[in-house]
Amino acid sequence: MTEVSTFPRLLADQARTNPNAVALQEKLYGIWQPLTWREYAERVRDAAHGLASLGVGRGDIVAVLGDNRPEWLITELAAQSIGAAVVGIYPTSLDDEIRHILGLSQAQVVVAEDQEQVDKLIRVRPQTQTVSTVVFYDPHGLEDYDHEWLMAFEDLEDRGRAWGVDRAGWLEAQVEAGSPDDVAVVCTTSGTTSLPKLGQLTHRNLLTMAGHLNEVDPLGPKDRFVSFLPLAWIGEQMVAVACGLSRGFALSFPEDASTQRHDMREIGPSVMFSPPRIWESMLSDVQVRVDEAGWLKRKVFGLGYAVGDRVAGRRVQGKGPGALWPLLFLANLVALGPVRNQLGLSRIRYCYTGGAPLGPDVFRFFQAIGVNLKQIYGQTEICGIAVLHKNGDIRFHTVGVPLPGTEIKIADNGEILLRSSAVFAGYIGNPKATEEAVDAVGWLHTGDAGYLDDGHLVVIDRAKEVQTAPDGTPFSSAFIENKVKFSPYVEETVVFGDEVITAMVIIDPSTTGAWAEHQRIGYTTYTDLAANPQVGELIREEVYRANVDLPEAIRIRRFVLLFKQLDPDDDEITRTRKVKRSVIEERYAELIEGLARGEDKVSVTNTVTYQDGTVIKREVSMNVYSMDGYEPPADAKSRPVWSSRR
After folding, report:
1. Which position among 102, 255, 413, 641 has the lowest Cβ density within 10 Å, counted as fewest Cβ atoms?
2. Which parts of the sequence belong to the AMP-dependent synthetase/ligase domain (predicted)?
């Protein structure tokens, strides 16, 4: 059924068969506000009529700029109902990105969340040519805006109700005329090397993927999903929308980023898909909480974790706990269960991570506390998923095996090639890039290097990033970076060089700050903390531990602690937290050259732009830490994965 359907038809099916079941709910002022499938379909109908009255028609694209709310999905389904598609723009996007996406998509109507997003559109609209109407769904602060092209979402729905009075059956005919091969969603690519491309995904692409995922991990109406990652991201579209509509489970939207963890505990999601940064952040939270606990609680958790880790070693091989069952029951009661509850994962059945590599140690931690975390591998161009770990067949160094209906092969140059009916319909306005991405026989050229290990896929890195050390050892910068990032004190690492490996390390302010307070080290700002020599020695020991597991030729020789965190607003990382290596190499060229030369200190010129538009430049000096001949302190102890204390 799913392979020959469309999103609007699935919504109509749910509204007909489960009219009173909850489809969406959002938390407002501390209270969950439910929307049933019937109410969902009615609001989609009104919004679809409203969009049609504004001139949106088959083949057009409607843009949405804002955080996850029911109005986001109502807009998406409304556009699809009349044969249009939707393109999501990350709410953190800056003017240039918004202008680029609106220009490529030629969107006439933009649905924006609030005053912040409307202000961005006011600035970029004069250069977009096509945008005729902006609809907002949070009116706070917009009461006095008098632009004739601005409209409240409620007014769009009212306009749609009036427009549809004399057009009975019109929308149903539009939905029926829709084809599974119509473009449903336009998703931006990661944009790590340039401005993002816009990939077109059809209903068939997305629902094929949802069906194949369901063959591996069955989902149903009783499952729950908390939608907190941007709906502009293919991962959220994949699970929240494609799987949600086809399997009929409810979506919940947290009230605010600050209440997200609390709201997750209330809902108790059964399925979750997040990039590595979310899982790494969760582990950091556990480490901080455990470190702040008393000696007895730390000891109890350590013993419980040891049991969970042993059981996880059996579970990933398809074995049960066996004789460890009584100990596991006790460990869950006093140690593992409370941690899962604090993380909002007490009812979880399936957890997925993808979009970037996740360190094996982080991966194993979640398995050890009883969370069924699995790796996914895919790209926007294949609906975000092609390869997945299966229950009972999990290997921490791989990303799993191909989904049903997905073919995989490794090209002669080591590139990973994928083929399935989930492969996208091409990039908007870029036929050359489309031809380069998908060859004449349907193979998607991922640009990633990897190999197969007994049927499991091992991803090395982007093919162009794979390097060769002087002794001939092939290596990936990402592999080295992940070894260092496993440290609870490290937020991000960027590795440079091939003959001499150097690195730029960005500390984690929460865990490193907690360590500094425990050591009675005073600091005021992030820059102050990163410049502290004791913090430098702490990270030096962490780099040493990462080096131990690496071949001699690719060990980090020198590193520096960057004075700031990498920021998507500074164009240093993407909205999904992927490092833009080309930007880093250009912006920090002085730093990289100083590291390569073996200098004791390196300096960079930092440009700071304040909110009032004032721009100042300042020179920042940083210490270089050498690993040559370094040995950790004699009294240094190994650190368990669940703690930042030794």
Report:
1. 413
2. 12-427
C-alpha 343/C-alpha 338 separation (Å) is 9
Give the residue-averaged pLDDT of 503-507: 96
Q: Give, in degrees to the nearest 5, the angle at Cα 638 between 633 and 641.
A: 140
Helical H segments across 68-169, by residue range: 70-81, 95-105, 115-124, 153-164
Say if residues 417 and 436 touch (Cβ distance below 8 Å).
no
Beta bridge partners, 416, equal: 410
Give the count of beta carbons closer than 10 Å to the beta carbon of residue 455. Answer: 11
Helix ranges, 316-466 (H) = 325-331, 337-342, 360-368, 431-437
Contact 531, 563 (CB under 8 A): yes
In whole angstroms, give the CA distance from residue 312 to residue 352: 16
Query: What residue has token string 């809902």?
Result: 267
Best CA proximity match to 566, nearest among 553, 551, 580, 552:
580
Q: Does a structural domain hold residue 571?
A: yes
Cβ–Cβ contacts within 10 Å for residue 339, how many? Answer: 24
Q: Which CATH number belongs to the domain containing residue 408 in this structure?
A: 2.30.38.10
Per-position DSSP letters for 8-43, written without gaps between them: HHHHHHHHHHSTTSEEEEEEETTEEEEEEHHHHHHH
Cα–Cα distance for residue pair 360/358, rounded to 1 Å: 6
Q: Is 122 exposed, middle or buried (0-12, 13-18, 19+ CB in 10 A)?
A: middle
> Mind listing the pLDDT tens digit for each residue in 574-618?
777 778 888 899 999 999 999 999 999 999 887 766 555 567 788
Same domain, 461 and 592: no
Mark whether 74 and 181 lie in a shared domain: yes
Q: Is 571 left (phi over 0), alpha (psi -120 to 50) or beta?
A: left
Token couple for 286: 């556990």
| Under 8 Å between Cβ of 201 and 425 | yes
What confidence tier does 3 reach under pLDDT thresholds 50, 70, 90?
Answer: very low
* Encoded tokens for 183: 């473009």
Both structure tokens of 527: 């820059």
Q: Label residues 359-375 b or e (16+ Cβ within 10 Å = b).
A: bbebbbbbbbbbbbbbb
Residue 239: which pLDDT band, with cuts at 50, 70 and 90? Answer: very high
Tell me the H-state helices in 259-404.
260-267, 276-292, 295-315, 325-331, 337-342, 360-368
Please say whether the dihedral angle defined by the alpha carbons of residues 28, 339, 363 and 270, taken in this order, is positive or negative.
negative
Calculate the alpha carbon distances from 377 to 132, 189, 386, 448, 457 in Å: 39, 15, 6, 11, 9
- The yes-or-no verdict on residue 389 having pLDDT over 80 is yes
- Same domain, yes or no, for 33 and 142? yes
Q: Which two tokens stand for residue 195?
A: 């401005």
Q: Which amino acid is at 289?
A: R
